[in-house]
Amino acid sequence: MTVRRPARVARPRHYLMCRPTYFTVDYAINPWMNPADATDTDLAIRQWQQLHDLYLELGHTVDLIAPQPDLPDMVYTANGATVIADRALVARFRHTERAAESQAFLDWFGARGYQDVAMATQTNEGEGDYLLVGERVLAGSGFRTAPAAHAEAERMFGLPVVGLTLVDPRFYHLDTALSVLDRDQIMYYPEAFSAESRETLRALYPEAILATDEDAQVFGLNAVSDGRRVVLPAAATALADRLADHGFDPIGMDLSELLKGGGSVKCCTLELRHRP
Ligand code: ARG
Fold it and tell me: At 21, is the secondary structure helix, strand, or coil?
């Protein structure tokens, strides 16, 4: 096999995060959550802080949204909105347990002077299910975001939206099964998708990096790339090797405590994309 190592270019990014001050697991809305398992909030905060500080070390900007006592899942800011060219489409959550997060995100974007802020009319969980690759939005459905929401995103952002159907409940959000590495490169776990969606992905991204079941099971695809540095769960060692073969710099992080809520690196990171 010839291994190609293209030169990768990192771009500074702007992220929105939420400190897990009130993190716990006291309800279960995905297969990873078990309220009977103890959580350690202090450990969750320490692990989250390392991710936050890493982004700063990498030269990125991180904004914070204030955590709220009765919203333990607010740490997963990726679900709060989708932001492209200063337009923020705020999420409408599938489960009542998270519904009140929408108002917090609406307030946050409103207070920062975003001109185009819209509350979604259709159920969608932000960047959990909408991932921008170049000029195209990949949109998951099957567990959380409604297929009808895809048209709403297309109208809001004026970009083509490609629908993908998730079929494995462990990978209930698109960002648990697919990760954007740069403008035309992604990595994903094929088995998380319907046969038709697998075909679509194969056709659009023939050079994509494919993850194994072991990589996916440790949330390896819940990763954040700046075009060169790829921050991903440390346990996804095989995937990290493959990323390095493709010219990326993988950086492993331990977010074991936040995995108890069914999220990792990407779930804790909402990208704020500004107008070019
Ligand atoms: N407990 C949260 C939920 O089930 C986890 C969200 C993870 N976020 C993500 N972007 N996949 O909604």
Answer: coil
Q: How far is the CA of 270 from the centre of ligand 1 (A)?
A: 12
- pTM value is 0.96
Cα–Cα distance, 103 to 29 (Å, whole number): 20
Report how far ligand 1's centroid is from the alpha carbon of 267 (Å): 6
Output the CATH code of domain 14-271.
3.75.10.10
- Ligand 1: atom nearest CA of 25 is 1
Does any ligand 1 atom lie closer than 6 A to the CB of residue 225? no
> Where do the structural domains in the chain lie, given as residue ranges?
14-271
**At CB < 8 A and 24+ separation, what contacts does 240-243 make?**
242/187, 242/209, 243/181, 243/187, 243/209
- Kindly state if the Cβ of 173 falls inside 6 Å of ligand 1: yes
Distance (Å) from CA 248 to ligand 1 centroid:
26
| Local confidence pLDDT in tens for the 276 residues of the chain | 555 677 899 999 999 999 999 999 999 999 999 999 999 999 999 999 999 999 999 999 999 999 999 999 999 999 999 999 999 999 999 999 999 999 999 999 999 989 899 999 999 999 999 999 999 999 999 999 999 999 999 999 999 999 999 999 999 999 999 999 999 999 999 999 999 999 999 999 999 999 999 999 999 999 999 999 999 999 999 999 999 999 999 999 999 999 999 999 999 999 999 987
